[in-house]
Amino acid sequence: MKVIVVGASGETGTSVVHGLIKSAENIEVTALARKSSLDKPEYLALKDLGVTVSTVDLSTVSNELVALLTGADVVISCLTSGNAEHVETQNNLASACKKASVGRFVPSFFGPICPPRGIMLLRNLKEDLLDHIKSLYLPYTVIDVGWWYQLSLPPLPSGRLANALTIPVQTISGDGNTETALIDKRDIGKYVARIIVDPRTLNKSVFVFNEIWTQNRIFDLMEKLSGEEIPRSHVNEQALQSKIKTANEAVAAGDITQMRNLAMSQYELVLGIRGDNSPERAKYLGYLIGKDLYPDLQGESLEQFINDTLAGKIERLYARRR
């Protein structure tokens, strides 16, 4: 099987490629990169693992792009979907996949469960991409993965995790008792490797995750394993909605620097207040559930992840970014 990954140098892309390489399936992996990124350590490391790395220009649906994709069984996009320009880039990729008769396209979703529109700007943009895919009648599979362990831990009062947590959790959303589905970012790839060879997932959406947790239970576990008492500060829905409104207005006025604040506030709402990110909500929205499809596939536990983080064994998120 020939699989092409676009955006392989990012956190999700790296996990996907490693999962494909380690898969029991006979998968030939090619990573497509911008010419300016070819010398990035991430791509050099992929070459050492036997991955073919080729240059790509996604600014147009060119004959060269179509030729690169021709013969691929699966194309997986791990590109950022943060604004309309990013969506247009992925639209071009999808259009080229259609012209190249690619067997299956996996768009860059890889996030928490959320209703299609009206809740999160990032989700709106992803749904715009999915609309384009469906307009082409391009075979596809959407994969969502919940929220990362790597983004779920609070800092410790002692500061011992200051260099380990890129984005520590500073506040608890609501009362802290809303359940949400979590995954170790490093496990994403092994789920993807199973999904893309499964005929049951063609033209479907699939939700994979490792465990279900609440923020209160995460804080409790962190205290137990670290031996430290962690202060707890809560943010209510009204405060979050106010932050979202302010950031939305700024983004609408052209201040793109507020996109991150908007996204994180909307994530807090979805994960900690609304409770969207659950297998029950996913089933309602039409998703297949990974644990139903692959009961033999086990991911890392949050407890082990925390122990490894405390022991300094977990690479800091985005540490490889230049």
UniProtKB/TrEMBL annotation:
Pfam families: NmrA. Residues 2-259 form the NmrA-like domain. GO terms for molecular function: oxidoreductase activity. Keywords: NADP, Oxidoreductase. InterPro entries: NAD(P)-bd_dom_sf, NmrA-like, NmrA/Isoflavone_reductase-like, PCBER-like. Gene3D superfamilies: NAD(P)-binding Rossmann-like Domain, UDP-galactose 4-epimerase, domain 1. It comes from the Eukaryota. This is NmrA-like domain-containing protein. PANTHER family: NMRA-LIKE DOMAIN-CONTAINING PROTEIN-RELATED, NMRA-LIKE FAMILY PROTEIN. The keyword Iron does not apply. It comes from Bionectria ochroleuca.
